[in-house]
Specification:
Two copies of one chain form a homodimer. In chain A, 76% of the residues lie in helices and 1% in strands. Chain A is mainly α and 272 residues long. Chain A folds into two domains: 6-77; 139-271. The two termini of chain A are 24 Å apart. Chains A and B meet through helix 9, helix 10, helix 11 and helix 12 of A and helix 9, helix 10, helix 11 and helix 12 of B. The first copy, chain A, binds a DNA duplex (18 and 18 nucleotides) through residues 43, 47, 50, 80, 83, 104-106, 114-118, 120-122, 125-126.
Chain lengths: 272, 272
DNA sequence: GTCTATACCGAGATAGAC
DNA sequence: GTCTATCTCGGTATAGAC
């Protein structure tokens, strides 16, 4: 289980997202009700909205990168990958909200502002979307240890930051994604191996961080320590609490299972 | 999150279960293939198998309870409730294996050796099955603290028993049920309140047990202690590890996230 | 690459015979 | 209470126009 990070978007990106959302909402509505009454009007509107959304997205891209530093073909390549990225981002939201089985490919495509046909041009099946999403989400955690064990810095454990991270994670719509990856791996033998590998590597990052932190607390330099069994056990408890405190906190709202409670016990675990 | 208990069945009960399984498998097969070829033969066979299964179940009941100690009407009442209980037990297995959305009411009914029609005579909807199941499974944990915090006895923490419990839980087909209750509550506002309540009460049982254990370790009598915040934090960590160690252990097979590792860190948590 | 249209199937739920 | 048959809907995936 890894944990999601809060989104960070510039204003243009946010506008693009908002327009895409509106487009998606309209697409969904049209598919269900308006279509039978005045099809041509609704479809023309949806098409123009989609076009506007694409244009905004391109503009966002162009602003984001310093002009001239990328060649034309690369930019075209990125334009192509953008759809894929948008679809995966939409998949993250929809699957987190409804679960893998509960989410339909139509839902995902519409959330991204596309149709099913477009999605199937990028992914061969629904399960392929799921695996691509898992590789992306669990993969970034491997590259950025701060996402794996929040609040653990070179100066020790930052309890404030840990609490803030837990609180944000509790409200994050994508919270349930990590759970979905876990259950998907448990229920689909084909995916189990790869997901297990991602989980193990993610855990090793966390264990290494715990080991460094504890070594430093004992006065050692903290560089290049190999985690002891006790470090690993501690890491297991920390990531367990990280996940359970946020999930149960959201469900129950109880102070006993809350970000604050989670931060307290994690602090104790890492101090002991 | 609560944890499932290993099944315990006498041999007659096991035979009943096996027959029901065979019946269910046949029912499924018939529905898909044989039905079109020789319908009357297959259906007659399925019907007789079902009847045999019911007979065996009744016999099992009669043997299980000392004869004469229950009145006739009570026994009839139990016969009626038996179907409901069988359906719920089948629902537990199927939903654990495929998830709530992935499990169909046909799957559940067939697993119990019945058809959809029978299920709908006992439950008004699929979601009602889910909630009845949650009440049953999370409810028994409230009445039997040993299921809530395994290995915690009056004499302290029994690490052997804890490890054994975790190992059994890791292999338990019903392991994923508690996760399913959690995500169902998170995704269905109508169910959130009741499930949250069950989770909170379950947690309070665990916290009380932690408090008693730690009080006794300090030399106090251990009777009627009210859990401190530190006790509650400890309980949060313990139940977190209990769940995560089994789930991740099953997925990864890693010794770092295993029943043994979970037992070690829980022991440390309860000693500190 | 994206859309529309559709094939095909299985889902949840209901009706009515027994 | 249980079964069979059926209704209606929505699912994944594909075909073919543009």
């Amino acid at each position: 289980m890894s944990r999601p990070e809060p989104d960070s978007q510039d204003s243009l990106g946010a506008a693009t997202r908002a327009l895409a959302d509106a487009t998606a909402a309209l697409t969904r509505m049209l598919g269900k009700q308006v279509h039978d009454v005045v099809p041509e009007v609704g479809e023309a509107l949806a098409a123009s909205l989609r076009e506007a959304s694409r244009g905004l997205a391109d503009a966002s891209d162009n602003v984001a990168k310093r002009a001239g530093s990328v060649r034309a073909d690369e930019r075209r390549r990125e334009r192509v990958d953008r759809t894929r990225a948008d679809l995966l981002d939409a998949a993250a939201r929809v699957i987190a909200a409804k679960g893998y089985e509960g989410a339909s490919v139509g839902d995902i495509a519409a959330e991204a502002g596309y149709t099913k046909g477009a999605l199937y041009a990028h992914f061969p099946s629904k399960s392929a979307v799921m695996m691509a999403l898992a590789r992306e989400r669990l993969g970034i955690a491997l590259e950025d240890p701060a996402l794996d064990l929040p609040g653990v810095t070179d100066d020790g454990l930052d309890v404030e930051e840990l609490t803030a991270w837990l609180t944000a994670a509790q409200d994050d719509p994508k919270l349930l994604l990590s759970l979905e990856f876990l259950t998907y791996g448990l229920r689909n033998p084909d995916a189990a191996g790869e997901l297990a590998d991602l989980h193990v590597r993610s855990f090793e990052v966390a264990a290494a961080q715990v080991a460094r932190l504890r070594a430093r607390q004992r006065g050692a330099t903290g560089a290049d320590v190999v985690p002891t069994q006790d470090d690993r056990d501690t890491a297991l408890a920390v990531v367990s609490v990280l996940n359970v405190a946020t999930l149960e906190g959201r469900l129950t709202g109880s102070p006993d299972m809350s970000p604050a409670a989670g931060a307290r016990i994690i602090e104790r675990l890492l101090a002991g």
